[in-house]
Structure formats: C-alpha cells, structure tokens
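ok so dumb question maybe but i'm new to this and my supervisor (M.) told me to 'just get the structure for Branched-chain amino acid transport protein' and walked off. so i did the thing. is this what she meant?? sequence i used:
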Amino acid sequence: MMTTILLMACITFFTRYLFLHRALPFKVGPKMQQFLSFSAPAVLTAIWVPIVFINDGGINLNWQNPYLSAAIVAIIVAYKTHNIYLTTLASMGLFLILN
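this is what came out, is it supposed to look like this??
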C-alpha cells in the first residue's frame, strides 16, 4: 500500500513539475492556455456547489440552509465591495451565527 501511495505521489509531482519548471523547453500553446483558463473556475464550482446545495442526500433550497444563506451574502458583499476580506468575514460570520 505504501508503495502505491509513493508511486502516485511521484506521478503527481512530475506531471506538475513539467508545467512549473521554467528551464524545461515545454511550452503550452495559446489555445491550450485559453482552454486551461477555465479549469480553476470549473474546479472551484465543482467544490462549492455540492456543499451549498446538497444536504442530507438531497437538494436543500430552504432559506434556513446556513450554507445557502452565507453563499448569498458572500455573493452580494463581493459584488458590492470587491473586498475579499470583508466578503470572507461577512459570509463566515453569518454562517457561524446560523449554526
């Protein structure tokens, strides 16, 4: 089991190393860069959507859902202020109050 974990860690490291090390002659073309520009929003959306909308095995769109309420506050504060710290504090504060 430990061998498998170490091998997977090596594979993960070297696949990222190819993109991050500047001395290697590997360059990504402009079309691939444009394609990869969508990966961060896609991954972040895949992380937060189940957390906010799915509770107890089903979709929870109830106003008493603290995750949904905090997410709505985060969207509004981020849109109005463009301040990441205020957005984080407001949404986390509301979430802690509701829980």
